């Protein structure tokens, strides 16, 4: 076990802040500097993974919350940083004649890298917490990319039903990312609405009751759209929508990688086995886990969803399937389905042999043909 309370141990998880000066440099200088953000987020972190290797040490999961102060701070200050970056950029572009159309498009692709690679990962951490402040910060981050329903879908559907046909973001074996992406965009909001409707019905309340969080989701997203329009006019609104699309694309790339081809055993009568570490792909690459605040220790996150990111554990190959590279490299590979299948399908088949040697017919699992979990 490792002791983690000191700031020097939390400091590597602050490398996300390095994106902000790169965004400012791109906005001020233009030209080739606008590509620095994507390079920082994907290429440099992947290279650092190769240099620094893996971190297989596990912190004490019983570390008290007061010892996690410096880890929590970076996630809690991120919304104002991201807010100022997105809307400051929208305001600036209308007053920056040195930025051409292509430069502006690439610059806001980089802003989407900030709001997707960092903002949505931090939102994910915040929405899992129990206190209202952190959950509100998570809601604000989601609204800044027009993906507020993710909170409902993630907490009420993905976590309880991962690895089953009910969960849209469990990528199916042989399903390419591009098909997966459009399927999730279509099914996700509808699935989240169904989950909230059923929860309200169990309380005897109508779907339009004020406690339905979709009212909050809509208000926050409309506020973000109105602010973008006020600051930048129609161009500002289009740039806001562009960065939001880039952020959502990155989130769903990550979702695709996290559970590709992994399923839970169907027990009959609408029941599935409990979630275990081997139902998520695990990666303990050091640098990419710094940037993504240990999201790649995803096996433990699903096994213990309430565990804060600095306390997440990693697992051996025998306990959980391992990705060959960190998320930045694996999500890039996922964009080329033939290469992805060549790299990952043998790993899925090895996972099946290891954990489910008795299952001979995988066709119903691959086609998501089993019934939805009871009551979902």
UniProtKB/TrEMBL annotation:
<dbReference type="GO" id="GO:0005886">
    <property type="term" value="C:plasma membrane"/>
</dbReference>
<keyword id="KW-0997">Cell inner membrane</keyword>
<dbReference type="GO" id="GO:0004497">
    <property type="term" value="F:monooxygenase activity"/>
</dbReference>
<keyword id="KW-0812">Transmembrane</keyword>
<keyword id="KW-0472">Membrane</keyword>
<dbReference type="GO" id="GO:0006629">
    <property type="term" value="P:lipid metabolic process"/>
</dbReference>
<keyword id="KW-0479">Metal-binding</keyword>
<dbReference type="InterPro" id="IPR005804">
    <property type="entry name" value="FA_desaturase_dom"/>
</dbReference>
<keyword id="KW-1133">Transmembrane helix</keyword>
<keyword id="KW-0503">Monooxygenase</keyword>
<feature type="transmembrane region" description="Helical">
    <location>
        <begin position="12"/>
        <end position="33"/>
    </location>
</feature>
<keyword id="KW-1003">Cell membrane</keyword>
<feature type="transmembrane region" description="Helical">
    <location>
        <begin position="69"/>
        <end position="93"/>
    </location>
</feature>
<feature type="transmembrane region" description="Helical">
    <location>
        <begin position="219"/>
        <end position="242"/>
    </location>
</feature>
<keyword id="KW-0408">Iron</keyword>
<dbReference type="InterPro" id="IPR033885">
    <property type="entry name" value="AlkB/XylM"/>
</dbReference>
<dbReference type="Pfam" id="PF00487">
    <property type="entry name" value="FA_desaturase"/>
</dbReference>
<protein>
    <submittedName>
        <fullName>Alkane 1-monooxygenase</fullName>
    </submittedName>
</protein>
<comment type="similarity">
    <text>Belongs to the fatty acid desaturase type 1 family. AlkB subfamily.</text>
</comment>
<dbReference type="GO" id="GO:0046872">
    <property type="term" value="F:metal ion binding"/>
</dbReference>
<feature type="domain" description="Fatty acid desaturase">
    <location>
        <begin position="107"/>
        <end position="332"/>
    </location>
</feature>
<feature type="transmembrane region" description="Helical">
    <location>
        <begin position="105"/>
        <end position="123"/>
    </location>
</feature>
<keyword id="KW-0560">Oxidoreductase</keyword>
């Amino acid at each position: 076990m490792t002791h983690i309370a000191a700031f020097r141990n939390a400091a590597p998880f602050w490398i996300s802040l390095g994106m902000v000066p790169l965004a400012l440099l791109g906005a001020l200088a233009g030209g080739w500097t606008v590509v620095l953000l994507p390079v920082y987020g994907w290429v440099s972190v992947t290279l650092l993974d190769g240099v620094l290797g893996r971190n297989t040490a596990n912190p004490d999961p019983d570390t008290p919350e007061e010892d996690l102060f410096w880890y929590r701070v970076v996630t809690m200050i991120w919304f104002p940083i991201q807010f100022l970056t997105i809307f400051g950029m929208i305001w600036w572009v209308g007053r920056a004649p040195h930025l051409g159309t292509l430069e502006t498009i690439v610059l806001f692709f980089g802003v989407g890298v900030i709001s997707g690679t960092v903002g949505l990962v931090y939102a994910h951490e915040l929405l899992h917490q129990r206190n209202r402040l952190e959950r509100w910060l998570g809601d604000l981050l989601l609204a800044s990319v027009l993906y507020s329903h993710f909170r409902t879908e993630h907490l009420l559907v993905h976590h309880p039903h991962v690895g089953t046909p009910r969960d849209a973001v469990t990528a199916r074996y042989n399903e390419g990312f591009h098909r997966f992406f459009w399927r999730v965009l279509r099914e996700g909001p509808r699935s989240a609405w169904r989950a909230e409707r059923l929860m309200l019905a169990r309380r005897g309340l109508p779907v339009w009751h004020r406690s339905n969080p979709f009212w909050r989701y809509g208000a926050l997203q409309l506020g973000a759209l109105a602010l973008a329009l006020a600051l930048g006019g129609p161009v500002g609104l289009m740039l806001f929508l562009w960065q939001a699309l880039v952020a959502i694309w990155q989130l769903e790339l990550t979702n695709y990688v996290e559970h590709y081809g992994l399923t839970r055993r169907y027990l009959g009568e609408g029941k599935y086995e409990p979630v275990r570490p081997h139902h998520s792909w695990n990666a303990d690459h050091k640098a990419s886990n710094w940037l993504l605040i240990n999201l790649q220790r995803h096996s433990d996150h699903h096994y213990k969803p309430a565990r804060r990111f600095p306390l997440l554990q990693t697992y051996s190959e025998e306990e959980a399937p391992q990705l060959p590279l960190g998320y930045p490299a694996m999500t890039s590979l996922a964009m080329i389905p033939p290469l992805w299948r060549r790299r990952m399908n043998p790993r899925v088949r090895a996972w099946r042999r290891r954990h489910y040697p008795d299952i001979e017919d995988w066709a119903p699992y691959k086609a998501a043909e089993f019934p939805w979990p009871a009551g979902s």
